[in-house]
Amino acid sequence: MVPGRLSVVGTGIRPGGHLTREAQHLLRGADRVFTVVDGLTLDRLRELNARVESLQDAYAVGRRRDDSYAEMVRRILAPLDEGAHVCAAFYGHPGVFVWPAHEAIRQARAAGHRAVMYPGISAEDCLFADLGLDPALHGCQSFEATDFLLHARRFDPTAALILWQPVTLGDLRRDAFEHDPEWVKVLAEVLAADYPADHPVTVYEAAVFPLDEPRREQVPLNRLHEARFSQVSTLYLPPAAPPALSAERLERLGISESELTFGAYQLHRRG
Ligand SMILES: C[S@@+](CC[C@H](N)C(=O)[O-])C[C@H]1O[C@@H](n2cnc3c(N)ncnc32)[C@H](O)[C@@H]1O
Fold first, then answer.
1. Which of 117, 57, 58 has its CA nearest to residue 87?
2. Atom number, ligand 1, closest to the C-alpha of residue 94
3. 262 domain residue, yes or no
């Protein structure tokens, strides 16, 4: 068997500007291209390579997403056995919340093919830019919303909190493509143990077209269940309070508070 080659690339969030030169080069040179993107992004991929096959038909309302993903992986891997260079394109960063991308890489390598993932611009990258969030200042935690709700995670409310995929809250069968407001109420109650009831939560949606504005809708935590979530909504909670300095560690390191000039400390001291 001549080993095949799998390149997994991201298209970014805005197809016009986010598709890296590296991804364009790989897409142009591939024997086959598989993708789940649609609309303008799909058109852009077709400009780069005529042999683009959409995997959108693997999705269907009522079909479990895990079955759709397994079908995608099968279709991506099939041409590798003929020694082909296959490029699989996913939106945003291909390794961020994209199970079929990681699974295709894993299975391709296990079958003796060469497989590489190339980074792209994720929704979180856009959020840092649009909401003016620098993770160096506060620290930043990022969770899948259902995962966060169902596990008693230890997280830090003095750092930024990003919750992905709120639209899937309550979609336990992973086949509905919409959320259950009752689950959102429970999420808000869980969060209220660590944040004030009126703590601002931003429902964030990065713009997909260059001239559009991002959606940055703020709702108080106790009214989160009234917010509208789409397939591309991400939630952002700013820190509730500054982090507490460890007097014990300062003493151990032989330094005083007045000597600190970095990160969150610098920000909080400036007010
Ligand atoms: C399956 S994940 C895909 C993430 C994508 N691979 C990335 O790198 O951003 C889908 C989730 O990403 C987030 N997302 C996708 N597009 C977004 C956008 N335009 N603005 C904000 N968040 C977005 C939402 O949380 C959405 O539920």
1. 117
2. 6
3. no
d(CA 77, ligand 1 centre) in Å:
24
> Among 8, 36, 232, which is best to mutate for testing ligand 1, by the most ligand atoms less than 8 A from CB?
232
Give the burial class of 252: count Cβ atoms within 10 A of its Cβ; 0-12 exposed, 13-18 middle, 19 or more buried: exposed
> Which residue range forms the structural domain that includes residue 134?
123-237
Centroid of ligand 1 to alpha carbon of 72 (angstroms): 19
Note the pLDDT tens digit of each residue in 180-223.
889 999 999 999 999 999 999 999 999 998 889 999 999 999 99
Tens digit of each residue's pLDDT (9 = 90 or more) over 119-129: 999 999 999 99
**129 and 210 co-located in one domain:** yes
For residues 127 and 229, membership in a common domain is answered with: yes
